[in-house]
Specification:
Chain lengths: 293, 281
């Protein structure tokens, strides 16, 4: 990192970084190291003694059907959310980029769900799909489809996917639109002069040029589905019915605060940290270098 | 321009209008429910025409809460506001200071600090729930505003953003202010801060929403109802047990929880988009 024309002072820089560094040490580094430490310890049922158990906690987790179920649920959930949110946002962004009249109005009307808290988004959708009073649940029943996400695991999953997607579309939309507007118009006009139709231009010019944005968004959406959707799960399904929507983050919370399994929860935290770190590395290393044409 | 007329245009508008309607539909239904009586809400299918109890429901929510959870929402709104403002301004202040130190000073451990801040980017609260909770409880910060806000104030994203921005400021400005006899803090206050105004505004919008929408953290840290943020309050209202949930009041509360952050995004749209795009670079 380049050091520029600057100041020399023995004390001042330390005072300046102190607040950030102290908070980081106390609330980030220390707890993370505690999680690492606890993940190789086991506590007796009365919390009196702890002993070193090596990787036993990890082995126990990876053999636990509940954890494997949670992995599976998380995979289904994040793939569905990312695919739906990216697909719909791309469709809307391409449309908004095409229209001349009203483009700003559409933009304003599409970006605001970003501001809605995940837990609140969950409540909105839960109300629509409430089996006894929800408008959409009622319409589905009228069509002969029996909706009750409190009993049916697949329906519960669909509901949390819908709520999570609804909230994420606006974020993806903003980035896709910015990406589309950065594509030089001359390229598209040149292709049009060469006789490429609208669809041809989309698939051979616009989409490849948009791929860095899309790849970046894919990573962000997976991170979102993994970690930021806790509020949706907690407020809509609480992981149920029968653990059908118990994503990893929810399970860490549940095992730590409801089931009080310290070592197990710490080991799960460590696995989650590994997932976040690898996703962040992917984002930094590959996103900008590999995908450009 | 090319092919901006014809059938395609209508189709494009149709797609957009359908998108806007789908996005708005859940909010509209919530708004309607917040203007009806409980009996009207329970009478399936619920009407989609706003009723006449709007003022009454919002008044009940704001000043008395539901019967089961008799905490007035006005207090929750205040808690959420304090939390969002403290987190947003706290993050901005400490990130400005540490970015200033890292860019303009040469000192031992500079890179160590830089990487330490970078690590926070990788450790969202969701992955270190229990140990962080324990630290806060050991420091006796449960059920307090410091406990709610301080642990969330460290920000790698904001530090990077300001660092990136400071690097683009020409060296001549530093030299000029040195020649004029200004010390480092004077340079920070009179040159860097005014130049960072747009970045601060953009970041503020994003961070305000981040703070307002916190869920897991307040859920763990606050057990006292007087400390409830509005997002947590809704959850408590819905956990009414065997009792009938008072939907109109809950839906009024839900609207109240959405209005401030949505307003911030819509009013400050330009800074919002800038903040979003910049902070993810």
């Amino acid at each position: 990192m380049r050091v520029r024309v600057g100041y020399s002072n023995k004390v001042l820089p330390y005072i300046l970084v102190a607040p950030q560094v102290i908070i980081t040490l106390v609330f980030f580094i220390w707890p993370a190291s505690q999680a690492l430490y606890q993940s190789v310890q086991r506590q007796d049922p009365f919390g009196l003694r702890t002993r070193f158990v090596g990787l036993d906690n990890f082995a126990a987790i990876l053999e636990d059907p509940g954890y494997l179920n949670s992995l599976y649920v998380t995979a289904i959930f994040s793939i569905s959310v990312a695919a739906l949110a990216l697909g719909l946002a791309l469709l809307l962004a391409v449309s908004a980029d095409r229209v001349i009249r009203g483009a700003t109005a559409y933009k304003t009307l599409l970006i605001w769900p970003y501001a809605v808290a995940p837990a609140v988004a969950g409540v909105l959708w839960m109300f629509l799909f409430n089996p006894t009073i929800g408008s959409v649940a009622f319409a589905l029943k009228a069509l002969g489809y029996d909706w009750n996400h409190l009993l049916d695991g697949n329906q519960a999953m669909l509901l949390v996917v819908l709520a999570a997607t609804w909230k994420q579309i606006s974020y993806n939309f903003i980035f896709f639109l910015a990406g589309l507007q950065a594509i030089p118009k001359s390229l598209i006009e040149a292709a049009a002069i060469d006789g490429a139709g609208r669809n041809r231009r989309f698939w051979t010019i616009i989409l490849p040029l948009l791929s860095p944005t899309a790849f970046f968004l894919l990573v962000v959406n997976v991170v979102y589905a993994f970690f930021d959707t806790f509020g949706i799960i907690h407020s809509v399904t609480s992981g149920g019915p029968a653990r059908a929507t118990e994503i990893l983050v929810y399970k860490v919370y549940y095992d730590a605060f409801e089931a009080l399994d310290l070592g197990g929860s710490a080991a799960q935290s460590v696995i989650l940290m590994a997932i976040v770190i690898s996703l962040t590395v992917v984002q930094f290393r590959y996103v900008e270098r590999r995908v450009h044409y | 321009m090319i092919e901006k007329k014809g059938m395609g245009t209508w189709l494009t508008h149709a797609v957009l209008i359908l998108g806007v309607l789908t996005v708005a539909f859940p909010i509209y239904v919530t708004f309607v429910a917040s203007s009806l009586t409980l009996r009207e809400v329970l009478d399936a299918p619920m009407t989609l025409i706003p009723g006449s109890h709007l003022v009454e429901n919002y008044r009940t929510a704001l000043f008395s809460g539901t019967r089961m959870n008799a905490t007035p929402v006005a207090g929750m709104l205040l808690n959420s506001l304090i939390m969002a403002l403290v987190i947003a301004s706290g993050k901005i202040v400490i990130s400005l200071l540490s970015a200033f130190a890292v860019v303009y000073f040469r000192f031992p451990l500079r890179m160590v600090f830089f990487w330490m801040i970078f690590i926070t980017l990788m450790l969202p609260v969701e992955v270190r729930i229990l140990p962080t909770f324990k630290v806060v409880s050991d420091l006796e910060m449960l059920n307090s505003f410091p406990g709610l806000t301080i642990p969330l104030i460290a920000s790698a994203t904001a530090t990077f953003l300001f660092r990136q921005f400071f690097m683009t400021i020409p060296d001549e400005l530093v030299e000029a202010s040195k020649i004029d006899g200004a010390g480092p803090m004077r340079f920070f206050r009179d040159v860097l801060l005014p130049l960072s105004r747009t970045n601060i505004a953009a970041l503020f919008v994003i961070l305000f929403i981040y703070g307002w929408n916190q869920y897991l953290w307040p859920l763990l840290i606050t057990t006292d109802h007087r400390m409830d943020t509005i997002v947590i309050g809704i959850r408590r209202m819905l956990a009414a047990g065997d009792d009938q949930i008072e939907w109109p009041v809950v839906m009024a509360t839900t609207m109240l929880a959405m209005i401030p952050p949505v307003l911030v995004v819509v009013v400050m749209q330009r800074w919002f988009v800038k903040g979003l795009v910049d902070s993810e670079k």
